[in-house]
Amino acid sequence: MRDCSEFPGNARSCKETFRLYAVQLMNNEQYQNVWNSGYWDLIDRITADTGRYSKHDPATATVNQEVRSYAVTKDAVYFAFRDSGACISILNVKVILFNYIY
């Protein structure tokens, strides 16, 4: 999370969240209006829990790590991140798939 004071125009506040979405498809399915928000499942609204990065004091920087679970029941899954003006940067994304056969 960046310190809001570093933004031009002296931003008094900045958003501290982004949204994580997923959509599942079967092999024979086609995307239909992929940008329709009703098409995607909202997994979570993710917030910056701790730490702020400031170019004036880089020693105070911390990196948040968030873990989310999502059950995949179809052949394919796509993930999307929606940021509406947040003061954040996504540094790394790791997707781990467990395939349980019963």
UniProtKB/TrEMBL annotation:
Protein name stated in the entry: Eph LBD domain-containing protein
Membrane topology: Single-pass membrane protein
Residue ranges of every copy of the Eph LBD domain listed in the record: 1-102
Organism: Onchocerca flexuosa
Biological classification of the source: Eukaryota, Metazoa, Ecdysozoa, Nematoda, Chromadorea
Keywords associated with the record: ATP-binding, Membrane, Nucleotide-binding, Receptor
Molecular function (Gene Ontology), one example: transmembrane-ephrin receptor activity
Compartments, record wording: Membrane
GO cellular component: dendrite; plasma membrane
Coiled-coil ranges per UniProt: none
A Gene Ontology biological process term: axon guidance
InterPro entries assigned: Ephrin_rcpt_lig-bd_dom, Ephrin_rcpt_TKs, Galactose-bd-like_sf
KW Membrane (keyword) present: yes
Main location: membrane
